[in-house]
Amino acid sequence: MSLLDQSRAPHRRHGLFGRLHTMRLGEDILLARHGARIHHLVHDRRNRRMVAVLHDGSVDYASNVLLASGVTPLERLSQHVRDVRDDVAPVSRADLKVLGWFTAGWAVVSALFIIGVITLSSASGALVSAQTATLVPAF
Fold it and tell me: Which of 15, 16, 109, 114 has the fewest Cβ atoms within 10 Å of its own Cβ atom?
């Protein structure tokens, strides 16, 4: 069989203006494995792979990616939220609730302290000390 013999090769669709689409990695791998025994190829976009149906009815798969991509931060966050919701995370929901209360309490105390410092600085009458209290954190 010649490389130019197109009679037994799987049908390849033409793209825009009659040009051939570029060959996907999985398609290349499947052609190397099975050659002329391939009846037709299907692109499985969801799983990022090519599916080859052979003349004898068997099916073979090949991935279209060289390296598996890592988990994105959004996927990691959604998995962590699911784990916390299902209470299988290393940090329990009760621990997160206590941490939330401590954070809210700390924010309230800090806000009251800042309001008190600004009020005392304004009440003393010196505008410079009020500006210093709001601009310099070490005052």
Answer: 16
Beta bridge partners of 49: 44, 63
Which strands sit side by side in the sheet containing 59-63, from one edge to the other?
38-44, 49-54, 59-63
Please give the model's pTM, rounded to 2 decimal places: 0.39
Which contiguous run of DSSP H or E holds residue 52? strand 49-54
Please report, as a single letter, which amino acid is at residue 66: L
What are the φ/ψ torsions at residue 80 (nearest 5 degrees)?
-65, -40
**Domain residue extents for the chain:** 1-69, 73-135
| Residues 35-72 pLDDT 10s | 899 999 999 888 889 999 999 999 999 998 887 777 88
52's tokens: 């080859």
How many CB atoms within 10 Å of residue 117?
14
